[in-house]
């Protein structure tokens, strides 16, 4: 696997500063393994949510942000997943998709990706660590 794509709403849209730090540390550990990272969200291209999502790229936490409002496709459409994979220059089949919506995870798998259903940070972290060979506490 060469790419990690993460949904925003329900995964990274965190009010708690400690949770944001944990996600940031985990994503940085993934990037330290040479893995490209992106956020893929069905958000519109303008507004408060779009600004909050883009902040993850502006701060350098992820390599790219892809918003449905910018590209014209929404998850679970293959084109939305492909837009995120293309944004980080990784083949779709070499990407892992994390989402809190089972239908989006299922679609990601049907399109050749590895899908992880996010229900709790600790579970998702263990799966990411296993897939990318990352050790440590997050």
Structure description:
This protein is of the alpha/beta class. Helices cover 45% and strands 17% of the residues. It contains 6 helices and 5 strands, in the order βαβαβααβαβα. Strands 3-2-1-4-5 form a 5-stranded parallel sheet, with helices on both faces. The protein is globular, with a radius of gyration of 13 Å. The two termini are 21 Å apart.
Task: Summarize this structure briefly.
The chain is α/β, with parallel strands linked by helices. It contains 6 helices and 5 strands, in the order βαβαβααβαβα. The protein starts with a strand and ends in a 6-residue tail after the last helix.
Number of helices: 6
What sequence of helices (H) and strands (E) makes up the elements?
EHEHEHHEHEH
How would you sum up the global shape?
Answer: globular
Instruction: Please compute the radius of gyration using only Cα atoms.
Output: 13 Å
Main-sheet strand order equals: 3-2-1-4-5
What is the CA-CA span between the terminal residues? Answer: 21 Å
User: How confident overall, as mean pLDDT?
Assistant: 97
Let me know the largest β-sheet. 5 strands, parallel
Name a few traits of the molecule:
single chain; 138 residues; alpha/beta; 5-stranded parallel beta sheet; 6 helices; 45% helix; 17% strand; globular
What's the arrangement of secondary structure elements?
Elements: E1 3-6, H1 17-32, E2 36-41, H2 48-58, E3 64-67, H3 68-71, H4 78-87, E4 95-99, H5 102-110, E5 114-117, H6 121-132
Parallel strand pairs: 1-2, 1-4, 2-3, 4-5
